[in-house]
Protein 1
Amino acid sequence: MDRFLGQNIPEEQRPQFLSDNCDAMEEIGYTCRFSPDELAQKKEELANVSIELNEIEQEKKDAMADFKERMKPYDEERKRLLGELKNKSKFVNEVCYKFIDHDERMVGFYNKLGELVSSRPIMPQEMQKTTFSINRNTGTES
């Protein structure tokens, strides 16, 4: 087949010439090459779109960093609350009162409400009785 048809006919009359001489007309899809001017225009459009897209992506990145910073305290609070709910308790750091029971060889720590919050076996350095612990065991006041 010839690469071109009707090249000797003016461009505005060419569709009629092709229609009159074809076997059938069908709508099909195909690729059409760009002219050098069209190609340069497409490259310029791509550059403009790329610049705009880059600016929008930077705005998004900045906004996401802002959202992340705003969410951080709530996320930490949620983690703390989830841990407390999971354990059904909370961690407290406060002054407690240490009592040594030499008879049971145990040490107990009581909070300000008098609740036993922790106990452990007595350590060797705690084995020596104090005057207070002797009086407590005998029931006398000092």
Note: The radius of gyration is 44 Å.
Protein 2
Amino acid sequence: MNRREGSEGGILEARLRDAVRIAERKKRPHFVGFLDEREAALAKGLMRTLQFENYMLWGGFSGSERVVFGAFPEYMEPAETYFPVEAVTASYRKSDSLTHRDFLGALLHKGVERETLGDILVEEGRAVLFIRPEVSAFLLQQTEKIGRVGIRWQEGAWEPYPVAHSFEEHSAVVASPRLDCITSAAGGVSREKASEWIRAGLVSVNHVGILSLSAAVEEGDILSIRGKGRFVIDRLGPPTKKGRLGIAFRKYV
């Protein structure tokens, strides 16, 4: 973790601790975010340290990558309906090509803060954005174009939502579910090279940096290799006749 990340992590931790104190002392829920996946992992770890369980992470739909953290008083059951998260839909001509980057860049350029923006799901002719309520009126009333493309906004969104990601399917055979073995297979390099990446801090599991070569990887884990991409580990096993391990994983594209 570099100095900037450490500073930002400290600020986020302080805000999360404040949220817990407000929930416990003022007996009302308090929210932080949107958080990215690394920040959400930090939040989960801090809640384990604080032994605080009455919280929830929600981004507007199941599988959200960017989520709002909510701390709740003990008398309240955390629920999606309490969260300050809204969906808006942008419609445009299918012949106009827009990407996640186009929407994010245009909105940040207009002064919208990143923390108020959740996932941005884009398909031909439609984008669904999950946002904090404080930016809803701005988007609906003042943002008529993304780049040079005319946009028509409306409140809410209908399912099915645009697909967030596409994947490449892969399989391999490894010696064991150790992190160095799985990193070698996912990165398409030797185990020695994969070990160098891990020691250099280039590899994380579930958005947490791991330096141990022998750390165990489990099914469902998200493996990130800086400069190489992200991978979902779908299957570990069964063992081959020679005692090695067949694995299946997907790469984000």
Note: The mean pLDDT is 93.
Protein 3
Amino acid sequence: MIEIKQLHGTEEELYRLVAPLVMNPAVLKQNYNFPFRTSEHFQWFVGLDGEGQVAGFVPVECKRTEYVINNYYVRGKDPDVLSALLARVLQAFPDKWLAAVSFVEDAELFSSLGFVAEKTWTRYVKMRKEPAHE
């Protein structure tokens, strides 16, 4: 079972939970060496396993016209953890346009949650999901 916390982008608890990961060379390698970033315009969804360890996180940048999922991490690339995190994001923002830059290997999971592919690159797929209530 995974516990998911929603944290503001500058919240102290967020830094405590994700700092060891976002500076870990193995985690950065999984993210193709792109750094993770945050600001007051982000909401983070952090999944904790039964032992209180971070199993994954999905940062969401809250822009004026859409909310953007980008540079997420899931330990061991576990699809169940990613699915739980994304379901929580969708629950938190049902009336927002969501854009996502997913890894190619995760595109099918995003599609199963209602995201539609717009553009595919070598490693990433840009996807979009309409609001549940428009």
Note: The longest helix spans residues 79-92.
Protein 4
Amino acid sequence: MVTAYDALSAAILDEAGIPLLLVGDSLGMVVMGHSSTVPVTMDDMVHHTAAVRRGAPTALVVADMPFGSFQTDMTAAKRNATRLLKEAGATAVKIEGGGPMTDLVADLVRIGVPVMGHLGLTPQSVNQFGGFKVQGRTQDAADRIVDDIVALEAAGAFAVVIECVPSDVGRRATEAVDIPTIGIGAGADTDAQVLVLPDLLGLTDGPMPRFVKAYIDGRSVIRDAVKSFQSEVASGEYPGPEHRY
């Protein structure tokens, strides 16, 4: 699974054969410039999910339910989830958290909304966690993650993202359920992996989490291409005869 936020990247990922596209509320940080995912709104998610759907008309597209769209009001949560399917064309929604969220997951599944869960480091709870920190380091915390994934499966979640936990916790959670687990900083024993596309392409500036692997230095590639364009325009080389009408 790879994140997508626009039609162009969605089309490229679909062409590459990526089976799951995630319209993550990470767009708040990598696209909108916020310091966390908390400010992302439902309208933001509908806008970007619709763009991804247009870029990949037949892909399996999962859209994040943003902070505040599902935590307080069950009726509003159902309305917001159905918006992502009806207005934006998402195939499924992703909801952060276990525990009390399992009742919501069960209700959404009952009304026909496929749900992916998200445990471990849940970025919408960054203020509660005191920052982006590895979760599940203590025995109690690890056991709680395993209990939560079992509860999410029982509630009807079709898959669960496990983020930023020790590898043995990722393994234990994966072994505890039959549904697929998708790791991000959860070791090699989950059923699949997810990365944020700008991180994967080496576009993100600054220190990266340990789990990030940049497969190209995209920031340098783009910068060099733009510098070449700028230089050729200044010298008169571009546009050449082959680029003129």
Note: The chain has a mean pLDDT of 94.
